[in-house]
Write a structure and sequence with these properties.
The protein is an alpha/beta fold. It is built from 6 helices and 6 strands. The longest helix has 30 residues. The radius of gyration is 16 Å and the shape is globular.
Length: 163
């Protein structure tokens, strides 16, 4: 993709399908992917679960504003744009490859916002049977609560937290 087109689309929400054609009647599993080690383990676990159950997998990549905004909007925007675009491209390629190799129907969603709210809304909208996320490794989440903890407390669906 050329630089100009990529720059225009970096922060737009997208939905892509990989692997075999999904059957909407099969079990749906949602996994949150942000490129961290725990999220990647959670995604791998979700792939295995979907494959064993003959289900479909929805992988959500949620881009959100970080602490870089304290550096100034221009600096934060440029750094986040490049990082988000690169991470998204890497994750998209990994999801496509795994979907084809494992013959698992995958819907790869890129969206923006708060990870908890986005995952909760995606799970509800897609009527998933299970949500799989990685455990947070941030010390502050012991006090404020992690995305996984908030998803568990919402109580809408089973949540598997992968260490």
């Amino acid at each position: 993709m050329s630089g100009g087109a990529a720059e225009l689309n970096a922060f737009e929400s997208t939905v892509e399908q990989f692997g075999p054609r999904p059957d909407p009647a099969t079990r749906a599993i949602l996994a949150g992917a942000d490129g961290t080690d725990t999220a990647m383990r959670a995604t791998a676990f979700a792939f295995g679960l979907a494959r064993r159950q003959g289900g479909r997998l929805i992988v959500a990549f949620v881009a959100y504003r970080s602490a870089l905004t304290t550096l100034g909007p221009a600096v934060a925007s440029a750094v986040e744009h490049d990082t988000t675009l690169q991470l998204y491209a890497e994750l998209r390629d990994q999801m496509r490859s795994a979907a084809e190799e494992l013959a698992v129907p995958v819907t790869f969603v890129k969206t923006h916002g708060d990870p908890y709210t986005t995952l909760r809304d995606t799970a509800d909208r897609c009527q998933v049977d299970t949500v799989v996320v990685g455990a947070s490794q941030k010390a502050g989440h012991r006090f404020a609560g992690s995305v996984a903890t908030k998803l568990i407390r919402s109580g809408h669906w089973p949540v598997l937290v992968v260490p």
